[in-house]
């Protein structure tokens, strides 16, 4: 087995440094960007595995000669994987370091949102006290039948995220307040309208939650002028919003410091400004 890794980039490239794929003589997992670049690297990797080429660093220019017009260049390493168990353990550890997203609520929007967010490099925990509401749970998603929302919020790490869409506005308020009081989450989203936000904000201020923390709340979520309230459309818009806030800007299995990097981002203010300018697609 070979690990084919993007070791360096210059200019416009389809993937970032650290992106990789694992290649065997008959299989492949992961991607370094597709197209002619990936096909060439896949072909070279298999020739290396068959003893027909040397495992050395290779530079590729993404220009006309490669039938690509990105215009940049990438340096690729071809690294033998001798210990498969160690490789599997490394991948599992990288998955465990992914940002956690708590989704509270298994209603029609919650089900659609979990389907779309399961495609992101996040660890998704889906919370509801009603065991019959989940339906089909996507691969990799942890469906948790519990009413211990306080324990779930406490267990989050700095830089994780939460989106709240339970059938109870009272429960929505309790969970949202607990998430905001932490002050260290990269995304706190609440389904609802601008009027719901105003009512909740007044309650949060009465509880003594600082205004700067209240301002980080994303509500309405998925705000966009297309005005489409179908669950799948809402889910797509909210998933894109969460990806901006939560997904590390490094490779899929990026640096150990990506939680700190996410906490330092200031994208919430911009998202919130846009939310207040446009009516929500997620009014209830």
Automatic annotation (TrEMBL):
Domain of life: Bacteria
InterPro entries membership: MoCofactor_Util/Proc, NAD(P)-bd_dom_sf, Xanthine_DH_XdhC, XdhC_CoxI, XdhC_Rossmann_dom
Limits of the XdhC Rossmann domain: 101-242
Chain intervals for the UniProt region annotation (Disordered): 254-284
Compositional bias ranges of the Basic and acidic residues kind: 255-277
Limits of the XdhC- CoxI domain: 4-52
PANTHER family: ALDEHYDE OXIDOREDUCTASE MOLYBDENUM COFACTOR ASSEMBLY PROTEIN, XANTHINE DEHYDROGENASE SUBUNIT A-RELATED
Name under which the protein is recorded: Xanthine dehydrogenase accessory protein XdhC
Organism of provenance: Asaia lannensis NBRC 102526
Record gene name: xdhC
